Amino acid sequence: MHVFLVCEVFEMVFAFISDVKNPGQPEIDSRTFLWVKIAMWITPLVMLVIMLLTWFQSRSHIHKIWRHQSELQHDRALQIIALPAVYGLMAMSSLAQLYQLANQAPVADAVAAGASTADAAGSLAQDRSVNYARYETVFMVADLYEAWALYQFGSLTLEVLEATLKSRWSDEWNKKRESDHEVKLSYGAVSQLMWLGTAMFVVVCVIQAGWSLWQWNFGSATSNFEGYASDLRQFRFAGLLASGAAIYNVNVVEHAYSSILGSYSPLLKFVSVKLLVFFSFWQKGALTLAQEVGILQLSELQIELMHSTFLVYECLLSALLHRWAWQAEEPWYEILTDSE
Predict the structure, then answer these.
(1) 45 CB-near residues (< 8 Å, 6+ apart)
(2) How many Cβ atoms from other residues are within 10 Å of residue 339's Cβ?
(3) CA 114 → CA 18, 102, 334, distances in Å?
(4) Contact 267, 258 (CB under 8 A)
């Protein structure tokens, strides 16, 4: 991951040098877009902060694993803690692709250099298609890991909930068989509901990534990019629905068992995980809607640049939340240890 970060920083620096040497590109040099451009330049430093936060927090969980204390649960927590670093790195990678695309010479410059208008327009359109494809592919990888992290979070939450309920069944409720049976039924129904949402999200992300890889390696994406982009939009809608279902089902568990999951601090953990799921799938749609109704006077490329830039900073916010939400010295780990 550190090597990947260094490579992406070099790409951002290369794009920045190209921007400085060839100023005046209309899509990134407008006054209304200047603040986004400045935020783009700072993203490598933001990513460094995210990586440091993730590393320092992960060390305490790794120490617990070495001491054989709730190893599976600390391992799940580590994979969740890594989400801001992984997703932020993917967002910066997509940002570097788009930044390089924005620095390309417009058609008029290519014509002035001796190319025909048709050739210049065709070359620019092809370059944009390739860069947009790379941009989408990077986010597919990020979405796949995000779905995996959400699965780990669901597994961990249900493990804590089951261990807590078992301790109550064996102590307080062993004389109340009717209530015991009702709680077991409630737990079973809610856990199945949560698995349905997270499983749907994981399956959609896996199919989307697999389909894209097939199209670029064995299919017709290179020769029929318009058809590929049209099919990709259907996966985006499926991703919106699946992420919405996953967020809703996780929210149901949070509200239904928040009193039982007291030491687990469910609200902060749910927010830290749901934050990136929400922004990754719904933010771009909100920006596009604002563009269509005239609130944002930006091009499609500017919307994509803004979306990728925002995601890096939102990953920083998520990493900061994880510092408080996923500490290694929480009492609920003992509940899991006692139930084993």
Answers:
(1) none
(2) 15
(3) 21, 21, 72
(4) yes
**Whether the model pTM is above 0.70:** yes
- Pick the residue with more confidence: 179 or 40? 40
pLDDT in tens, 232-279: 778 878 877 887 777 777 777 777 777 777 777 777 888 888 888 888
Q: Which two tokens stand for residue 303?
A: 């919307």
pLDDT at 116: 47
Alpha helices in 103-176 (DSSP H): 107-112, 117-170
What is the DSSP code (8-state) at residue 69? S
Q: Are 157 and 252 in contact (CB under 8 A)?
A: no
Write down the pLDDT at residue 184: 60
H or E element that contains 200: helix 177-217
| String of DSSP letters for 4-17 | HHHHHHHHHHHHHH
Model confidence pLDDT, tens digit, residues 94-115: 888 888 877 765 533 443 344 4
Torsion-angle region of residue 296: left (phi > 0), alpha (psi -120 to 50) or beta?
A: beta
CA distance from start to end of the chain: 34
pLDDT class of 60 with cuts at 50, 70, 90: very high
Do residues 198 and 245 make contact, with C-beta atoms less than 8 angstroms apart?
no
Please tell me whether residue 340 adopts helix, strand or coil conformation. Answer: coil
* Residue 307 pLDDT > 80: yes
Question: Which whole-number Å values give the CA distances from 180 to 111, 235, 329, in the listed order?
Answer: 78, 43, 31
Q: Determine contact, residues 92/43, Cβ cutoff 8 Å.
A: yes
Assigned token pair, 68: 């054989």
CA distances from 174 to 112, 171, 185, 286 (A): 85, 6, 16, 51
Half-sphere exposure (CA, 13 Å, Cβ side) for 252?
Answer: 18
Burial class (CB within 10 angstroms; exposed 0-12, middle 13-18, buried 19+) of 116: exposed
